[in-house]
Amino acid sequence: MPHSIRLRGPWNYQPLIRFLPLASGQLRGAKENVPRGGTLELPADWGGVLRCDFQGVVRFTRRFHRPTGLHAASRVWLLVDDVDWRAVVTLNERALGSVVSKLATESGALRCPARFDITADLLPQNLLSIDVTSPSLTANGFPLPRPGREDQPGGPIGLVRLEIE
After folding, report:
1. Which whole number is the average pLDDT over 153-164?
2. pLDDT at residue 106, as a whole number
3. I need a labelling partner for 49 at 20 to 30 A (CA). Which of 36, 59, 69, 80 fits?
4. How far apart are CA 73 and CA 145, in angstroms?
5. pLDDT in tens, 131-146
6. Quick check: is 148 in a domain?
7. Using an 8 Å Cβ cutoff, are 5 and 162 in contact?
8. Which domain holds residue 104?
């Protein structure tokens, strides 16, 4: 039976890009005038810290130690239970992959829950980054539908955890 370690927090968050609405209904990304970052516990959306109307890209980061008691046959998995809407997951500056919401219908990314084997990537000290984009945009800058979360803020809305087998 796997042993689970929840990575609840504290997590640092830093808005990277704010989406601004255009008259056409498109959204344009802007790096200026983004709100300040801070810390929060996960799982959470960013409504409580960035306001519910914030749309853009927010980086969530957390440091953690390599789990103790690992054996040669041990496997360590990183699980991301859910995000709203799309996220890129990085461990120690190495991209693990992108994930999309459980509600997503688009292809090209792992659907939540997403699972990454990070055994070979673990260091004594590790930096996990999850860059969440909400809403996800088409190539033309129009927001993709978010069934059931249209008026909700984005973020890592499910647990983030390590599983050791």
Report:
1. 92
2. 57
3. 80
4. 43
5. 999 877 777 777 777 7
6. no
7. yes
8. 3-138+154-164
CATH number of residue 75's parent domain: 2.60.120.260
Q: Which residue reads 């042993």 in tokens? A: 3
On whether the CB atoms of residues 10 and 38 are closer than 8 A, the answer is no
In a domain, 145, yes or no: no
How many angstroms separate the CA atoms of 132 and 43, rounded? 13
Question: Which amino acid does the sequence have at 46?
Answer: W
Q: Tell me the two tokens of residue 28.
A: 């344009």
- 119 has pLDDT over 80: yes
Query: For 76-104, how does the pLDDT look when each residue is reduced to its tens digit (9 = 90+)?
Result: 999 999 998 889 999 999 999 999 887 76
Q: CA–CA separation, 90 vs 62, rounded Å? A: 11
Q: Which residues of 14-51 are buried (b: 16+ CB within 10 A; e: fewer)?
A: bbebbbeeeeeeebeeeeeebbebeebebbbbbeebbe
Euclidean distance between CA atoms 93 and 26, whole angstroms: 31
